[in-house]
Design goal:
Elements (H helix, E strand, L loop, with lengths): L1 E2 L15 E2 L3 E9 L11 H19 L7 E8 L2 H6 L1 H11 L6 E6 L10 E9 L1
Parallel strand pairs: 4-5
Antiparallel strand pairs: 1-2, 3-6, 4-6
Helix pairs in contact: 1-3
């Protein structure tokens, strides 16, 4: 896996501009902040983001993958301000669960998510070398 950083571009904050990788691909559908019994966790945006990341790591494990195999993540949030307000807590959760690996990431603000009460949904792609 190689991070793609064009010469002269500023270093991105908290994500990479691009990644190239070869191997077996794992596609993780959008994960929301619910537990294995599909109960939404309490505690607001940061708690839901933490749970969504835990869910992604659990699914990766089923494929024999780990967080360092992530190549892409797309975050869908219902409230940009809630995301920015929870930035520190989300960053801490990310570091605890994913580590210091930063795949190509996109954040999209949406009008709503399908699951009632969901504030964030994260989908991911990983490549196992």
């Amino acid at each position: 896996m190689k991070v793609l950083q064009p010469p002269g571009w500023s270093r991105p904050k908290g994500y990479s501009n691009g990644i190239v990788a070869e191997g077996r691909q794992v596609f993780v559908a959008g994960q929301v902040g619910w537990d294995p019994q599909e109960r939404m966790v309490e505690g607001g945006f940061a708690a839901q983001a933490r749970q969504a990341l835990l869910n992604i790591v659990a699914i990766l494990g089923e494929a024999g993958a780990a967080p360092e195999h992530l190549t892409r993540m797309t975050w869908y949030v219902t409230d940009k301000q809630a995301y920015t307000d929870a930035g520190k807590e989300v960053g801490q959760a990310y570091t605890e669960i994913i580590g210091s690996h930063y795949p190509a990431m996109t954040l999209v603000v949406v009008a709503g998510l399908i699951e009632e009460g969901a504030l964030v949904e994260v989908e991911a792609t990983a490549v196992i070398p």
